[in-house]
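Quick one: structure tokens for this chain, please?
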Amino acid sequence: MNAQATANEGQPRGNLGQLILATGAFAVCFAIFGSVSAMMPTIKTDLNLTPVQVSIALALPVLLGSLGRIPLGMLTDRYGGRIVFSAVMAGAIIPSLGMGWVQSYNQLLIAAFGCGLALASFSVGVGFVSGWYPPQRQGFALGVYGAGNAGQSLAAFGAPVLAANLGYQWGFWVFSALTVVWLICFMLFARNAPRQGQVKSLGQILQPMSNPKSWILSLYYFLTFGGFVAMAVYLPTLLTDLFGLSKTDAGLRTAGFVLVATALRPVGGILADKVGGNTILKWVFPITTCMASLMAFNNVVPFTIGALGMAAAIGLGNGAVFKLVPEYFPQSVGIVTGLVGAAGGLGGFFPPLLLGYIRQQTGSFSYGFVALAVFTVVCWLVLYFNNRPRRPSAQLAS
């Protein structure tokens, strides 16, 4: 008992101010990332793009936002989140400004790819926030931080409105300006949590990647966060194309999807604190299967029900997965977050490409949602076989 008390003596109890700073930083970064997809229906018309060209332009920032999470997580483990998050925000502002001057498809690809740096910021904030909170409160803290996804909702609804009233460029530039303001606040007031132990070598930082648990969590996040990103970036284009909705209406519905998923992410983290992340995922996967099946119907009513139901399920799932990361890798949150976050980002990279290809070849998106339903069944089976009582060595649950 005394040993436990001694171990916890120097551990931070939480820091609401630093949590707010990190959540705000993630929100403005996500708004920069989200403005690309929010403005894509306009860009598609102006540049006369094909469905596959649109899919590539939407997928490229997700690619950088996915793979960039691994090195950024490593840098956060080594140097702390304050300097790394500041550098990421500064770097994301440049391509966001460039999006306002895009005149060709090649320029679009370059600027959109650069905006993916904003999405990569996720692993930085997880490493930054988790250092300020003890294990029993990290589900809550990381759930609140993950609610920075609301920046996507802000962009989904706000970018088309800003463009309609102020001009095309301001659909991007307003979010660039917000990021500048938050960058200044972050640099002035953000502080890294007290470091526990010595700075790790590169080999020590990479060591958790050899643990199968890190790859299983990556699979789960490939579905939950990947589904969120894929839907958030493709919904504006999908709704205008499939159901003939106006750009503003499609943006409003996309914002609703993002808000539901974002609001339930901290709920998933809090519930995971109480009953365990794997228990939450046990319900998330079958519900997602059912919702994806509803979205396969080429009708706005079942599609809407399925989309909102999926938003709720994957929102809970996102919070649950990131309760498990610091629980199993308390000394390597940054690199494991980078790996798991990269998998989640890649989960958002492939579906838009697949949906665009399927739409161009068949005239329908239905087969893409059927594939999603099948994949969720696979995730549920992995969860089941890795948590059977008769195989304790394969369990993820403690």
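Residues 1-9, 391-398 have pLDDT under 50 and may be disordered.
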